[in-house]
Amino acid sequence: MSTSSSAAADNGLPHPWLAVSAVGLATFSVVTTEMLPVGLLTPIAETLDTSTGNAGLMISLPALLAALFAPLVVIAAGGMDRRRMLCGLLGLLVIANIASALAPGMVWMLAARILVGFCMGGIWAIAGGLAARLVPRPDIGWATSVIFGGVAAASVLGVPLGALIGDFAGWRWAFAGMALLSGLVLALHLAVIPALPSASTATLRQFAQQLGGNRLLQAGLGLTLLLVAGHFMAFTFVRPLLLSLPEFDAQWVGALLLAYGVAGIAGNFLAGTIAARRTVLTLTAIALGLLLTPVLLLSLGRTPVGAGAVLLVWGLAYGGVSVGLMTWMMKAAPRALEIATALYVSVFNVGIALGSWAGGQVVDAFSLETNLWWAGGLAALALLLSAAMGLAERSQSGRWQPHR
């Protein structure tokens, strides 16, 4: 795989950071669209006459398809202009959100969510490698943080924003609002993103080499699966949890999730500050936080004050997941970054799909409380794996072995 060395000057781009911000807004838009049903699960299930567990398919189905499309897009992109691909995918995202807002039943809604999965895998995989093509080399690290910051912000803010709009205007208007935002982001791309013809190629063989021979990357992908699946096993059902455990009034759910989102943004910047120097320590702290969350919810979360406090801890812990894990991936495969990013996106979305699907099965068969115990078990496994990764790192005297 060849990596382009680019700078804003190479593209004749007068405002490279405006282009970087546009790409960050693209990742924010698509991940927010993916996460939107989490805060609206109960009203959507009631309107479309389906169970809470089946409604969880709105999260798991697009995530699973995104996992499939992320590496396929990187391989199939070839010489296609990345600007055209991003704009086309953003156009499809507008259509998917409009279709969701108009959905008369669950089949229609799931069809729209399939389209979201296609957009998710494509946009995230392409966006991950664009920083080096938009800014000078010294700024690549910060530009990458801005682009992936869209993912982090969407992961923690997408749910509360959707819930707030849903509480005030109804869940259909939440999707309509995302259609409008996606359209505005598309217009911004058309205005500020330069032509981006293919500057790198990836083959199936290179994917297989990284996946089969890079143990640091393998460990990171395993940790990604455990952390994300455990989180979404519980978080997919955060609204019914808040309505049943401490018995919050529905009108408070949006505000509580917004507080969660603010804590998540703080966690993102905190993890980003520490992860570059102490990556394993950051990931271990995140795993510990996600393990404590279900335990604290079951013990302290039966009062409004306790549940609100635990929700802040949850947001702080999960907010650092994207930047912490991506930092590990960049160190594990510095010379195959686009491949590592595509694999990371794929496994991340498999984790979302498996977590939300498994959570739905447990909730329907047992209870919300039982589901929390299962989520905690996955977080415990993640904590053990992060500890093992720390031992492996120390055995190499802290020296990372780059993989081509």
UniProtKB/TrEMBL annotation:
The alphabetical list of record keywords is: Cell membrane, Membrane, Transmembrane, Transmembrane helix
Q: Where is the Major facilitator superfamily (MFS) profile domain?
A: 17-394
CDD domains found in the cross-reference section: MFS_NepI_like
List the InterPro entries: MFS, MFS_dom, MFS_Efflux_Transporters, MFS_trans_sf
Presence of the UniProt keyword Glycosyltransferase in the record: no
Which Pfam families does this chain map to? MFS_1
The yes or no answer to whether the keyword Membrane is present is yes
Please list every transmembrane segment annotated in the UniProt record, as residue ranges: 57-77, 89-108, 114-135, 142-165, 171-196, 216-238, 250-271, 280-300, 306-329, 341-360, 372-392
Q: Where in the cell is it found?
A: Cell membrane
Entry superkingdom: Bacteria
Please give, as recorded in its UniProt entry, the membrane topology of this protein.
Multi-pass membrane protein
Which PANTHER family does this chain map to?
CHLORAMPHENICOL EFFLUX PUMP RV0191, PURINE EFFLUX PUMP PBUE
Recorded protein name is MFS transporter
Species annotation: Acidovorax bellezanensis
